[in-house]
């Protein structure tokens, strides 16, 4: 019997779910995966089944051995407690890993609004608002600094860790919207996309039924 459950949304759309799901899998927690497909009503608002099943009305949400954890960063920290080594071992590197993860979790609204996560579409060349491009420039600087300091292929070295999990959905956005990025960024994107867990997420996203598709996330801007 599993030790709990992880509630997530559609793998095709839910960038936050991807972060929690990666953290839980990196930590090797034995939890049941419960996927609640998003519903969009004309009046807006979030999915009633998610609102009813989670403390904040949002996914991801983790229940594990009596602990209840929501917010992606809190889930990442909980997973790091369960499986030490998911943050860098070095204190100074760990401080940067936490900082860049928090910067992602609390910022980059320009990117998030203009280039939403869709694991099944090619919106190449679209969404290039000034705000999104400014966020992308900052993200590229973060990645370049981390990769240079730790030698890649992941942000803090050889191992795909929690900072990579937090940025994996950004890689996904870049794959879908294909902004112009540096060769360093492209190499990092390729490493993240090839990670077995990220690849599994994409395969499972592609296997979701057409009845779960939401027009708002399938229609490119200006269409
Ligand atoms: N700050 C939260 C954000 C979570 C979030 O916004 N989740 C979205 C999905 S990606 C959600 O649950 N939306 C409910 C809905 O669309 O019905 C976190 O870090 O986990």
From TrEMBL:
Domain of life (superkingdom): Bacteria
Gene3D superfamilies (alphabetical): 1.20.1050.10, Glutaredoxin
Residue ranges the record marks as coiled coil: none
Domain GST N-terminal, residue spans: 4-87
UniProt xrefs under InterPro entries: Glutathione-S-Trfase_C_sf, Glutathione_S-Trfase, Glutathione_S-Trfase_N, Thioredoxin-like_sf
Protein name per Swiss-Prot or TrEMBL: Glutathione S-transferase
Organism: Paracraurococcus lichenis
